[in-house]
Design a protein that fits this description.
This protein is of the alpha/beta class. It has one domain (about 10-260): LigB-like (Protocatechuate 4,5-dioxygenase, Chain B), CATH 3.40.830.10. It has nine helices and eleven strands. The protein has helices at about 25-40, 75-80, 90-100, 115-125, 140-150, 185-200, 205, 215-220, 225-235, and strands at about 10-15, 45-50, 55, 55-60, 105, 130-135, 160-165, 240-245, 250, 255, 260. The strands form two sheets. Strands 1, 2, 3, 4, 5, 6, 7, 8 and 11 form a nine-stranded mixed β-sheet that branches. Strands 9-10 form a two-stranded antiparallel sheet. The radius of gyration is 17 Å and the shape is globular. Its cofactor is Zn(2+).
């Protein structure tokens, strides 16, 4: 008897950088487009975005979430953009069940923030793949975020793409707008340390990233953009191939590395 086995989906951490990338055709955005073509359309997407840092764990549960324009100072055309991907109340409910006994709130009002849609507009421009976002509870330790990622990783076997969206290094006050293709030494060191820890499959280093002292303090002044990486790495399985795309730093302090796990 033949069965139709679902191909496991990858887990991908996207270094999303500026929301303005959604309006550009550049090396970064072409890489995102290529990943969409490489893996094809999943059954759905579970996204952990830097821009939903919450009290408690929350999950978007509306059938038709709106597009949130949570940025400022960009052209009007960006505020007119919509990413009308469907939500999935059924997937949201399954996530809550999978994460039990952790208390998870289903949020029927929350839309898609730019950490998700500004990337996915390049990866899946037709906006026809169901999308659910999981908010990161600010009260949890890095190890707990990693463990939630491990639990969510089981959805990969059911045809769902697990997506993290943030930046390994994200320090906006230190950005140098004259240094589009340059890196501060501390940003380069921290990025190399994190990529090396991923390559050697040493998750303890990723969880205890503050051990890098001043480099970590400057690279991750607030954890919101770093933590989505821990969800993706939590979803990594033994023998999963891992590769780095766009391992570059922009403006001195934005590491644009995308990490592809499995697939």
């Amino acid at each position: 008897m033949q069965t139709n086995k679902i191909r496991p989906q990858p887990a991908i951490f996207f270094g999303h950088g500026s929301p303005g990338n959604v309006m550009e055709d550049n090396f970064i955005t072409r890489t995102w487009e290529n990943l969409g073509r490489e893996f094809g359309k999943p059954k759905g997407i579970i996204c952990i975005s830097a821009h939903w840092y919450t009290r408690g764990v929350r999950v978007t549960a509306g059938a038709h979430p709106g597009t949130i324009h949570d940025f400022g100072g960009f052209p009007k055309a960006m505020y007119d953009m919509r990413y009308p991907a469907p939500g999935s109340p059924a997937l949201a409910a399954a996530i809550r069940e999978r994460l039990a006994p952790l208390d998870v709130e289903l949020d029927e009002e929350r839309g898609f923030d730019h950490g998700s849609w500004c990337v996915l507009a390049k990866v899946f421009p037709e906006a026809d793949v169901p999308l659910v976002q999981v908010g990161m509870d600010a009260s949890l330790s890095p190890s707990r975020h990693f463990e939630i990622g491990k639990a969510l990783g089981a959805f990969r076997d059911e045809g769902y793409l697990l997506m993290g969206s943030g930046n390994i290094v994200h320090n906006l006050p230190e950005m140098d707008w004259q240094m589009r293709d340059g890196s501060y030494e501390w940003a380069g060191r921290f990025g190399d340390y994190i990529r090396g820890s991923i390559a050697s499959d040493t998750p303890a280093n990723l969880i205890d990233y503050t051990s890098q002292n001043r480099d970590a303090l400057l690279s991750v002044p607030h954890p919101d953009h770093y933590l989505p990486l821990l969800y993706v790495m939590g979803a990594r399985r033994e023998n999963d191939p891992v590769r780095f795309e766009t391992p570059i730093v922009e403006y001195g302090s934005l590491d644009m590395t995308t990490v592809v796990v499995g697939g």
